[in-house]
Structure to design on (127 residues):
C-alpha cells in the first residue's frame, strides 16, 4: 500500500511559478511510475505529466510542454512538478498518482492505470 500526500499548491498570478511535491510512503517508491493529473471545475480529470520509476522517461500533456517539469527523488520518496509561466487555464486541483509498471522505464498517461492517488492540492492562477 502506498500513501501519497501533495503539497505546494496555492494562488499565483499569471506568469508565475509553483512547485508541487508529492511525498510517498513505503519502501518501494522506485518501483512506481508516477503521474500528475488535474481536474478543473466542471471538467474531466486530465493527464499533465508522468515519470518512470527510474526517472529516465517523462511524458507531458502538449499544453504544458516547455512550461512544466516533472522530476523525482527516489531517496526522498518524492515526486515534483515544477510549473512555470502559469496561465489561468492551469487552474485546477492537481493530484499525484502511482502505478507499478512492467519496466522501470515505463510510464502511463491513463488515469485508470494508476492504483494510488493523493488527495489533491489546489492551484489557482489569476489573470
Amino acid at each position: 500500500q502506498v500513501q501519497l500526500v501533495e503539497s505546494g499548491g496555492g494562488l499565483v498570478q499569471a506568469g508565475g511559478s509553483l512547485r508541487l511535491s508529492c511525498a510517498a510512503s513505503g519502501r518501494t517508491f522506485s518501483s512506481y511510475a508516477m503521474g500528475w493529473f488535474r481536474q478543473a471545475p466542471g471538467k474531466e480529470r486530465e493527464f499533465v505529466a508522468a515519470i518512470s520509476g527510474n526517472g529516465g522517461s517523462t511524458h507531458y500533456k502538449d499544453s504544458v510542454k516547455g512550461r512544466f517539469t516533472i522530476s523525482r527523488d527516489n531517496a526522498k520518496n518524492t515526486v515534483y512538478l515544477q510549473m512555470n509561466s502559469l496561465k489561468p487555464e492551469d487552474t485546477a486541483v492537481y493530484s499525484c498518482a502511482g502505478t507499478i509498471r512492467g519496466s522501470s522505464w515505463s510510464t502511463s498517461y491513463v488515469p485508470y492505470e494508476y492504483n494510488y492517488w493523493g488527495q489533491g492540492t489546489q492551484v489557482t492562477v489569476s489573470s
